[in-house]
Amino acid sequence: MTKYLSLFLVLILLFGCQSKKEITLLFVGSFTDKKPGEGIHVYQFNTKTGEASLKFTLDSITNTSFLKLAKNGKYLYSVMDSQMPYHGKIAAYTVDSINGTIELINTQDCGGLNPAHLNIDKTGTFLTNSNYSDGSISIFKIREDGGLNSFSQLTRFKDSSLIKKRQSASHIHSSNFSPDNNYLFVHDLGADKIRRFKLDFKSQDSILQNETQIQIKPGSGPRHFTFHPNGKFGYSIAELSGKIIAFKYQNNNLEFIEEYQSYKNNHDIYRAADIHISQDGNFLYASNRGPDEDTISIFSINATTGKLISVEHKPTYGEHPRNFTLSPCGNFILVANQFSSNVVVFRRDVTTGKLFKLPHSIKVNNPSSLQMQTYL
Known about the structure:
about 375 residues
């Protein structure tokens, strides 16, 4: 990227990138105490002030704890019935961006217990679902109308690792498509492994092929992952060790670089959760959800080596920050504090990466997943 393009991106982030004709929507998925309740809220987000106004609430739905928007923003996908003793579901919705509402297209059985994460491949054709409790991953073909076919492949794993209370079995927590969309990296918290699969999208029932494994330090618990925008590096957040693990992405594989403590202080128990990189590739953010520290850790990224330098740790002004998101322009970060039932809004300094809390927080019960999109 040239220095002029970099300067252009910074100016966009500083002065806003939403015209008067555009609208930015915030989608909040929530736990509902394992009973039908208000599962998804849609807000209109003001990209000048950071304020949000409620537009729509989807009621009578259970534990819609993770959301994923299609790249074009026309469709929203949600897990349903997570953390229940029976198979969960995946729901597909159309998004009415003008009115800020969603409408159900269809639902499909997810093939396992406790769906925890969704992802969509670069072409927008396939959706992956990670089942945490029984350690499996399912793949769905996305129809032209945004709805889902029944899963075409379900792969279960049997494995374990060091911490017997949390790692007595495989627990698939998330998956990520490679920058070139040729591989899928599946993160197994229970086995301390990242499982790499070659993708064959032409196959009818065996899209995931030729599994290889990347072993993570025992007791780490890899949870979520993000690739750097330049496609050269990847970063894993390890829930059980509270570490961020940096990798070089080379020859279609992840090569260990270094690991970093995500928490500000040392603790006996860690519950690191989510990880994202700013759109300009300069800063990495991770959420640390107690039990004794609720913070967002901020690191600057060396775009040449992939190494991280700590910038600061910011309190989340709530309890148990399970998930967070950057606004489409990158000048805000919103954090879902599940246990304190608030979504806190921070303005982001795009030059330093630091966060500054704004007075407008969003009150919503048990928020756990955030998605944002700007529409024309």
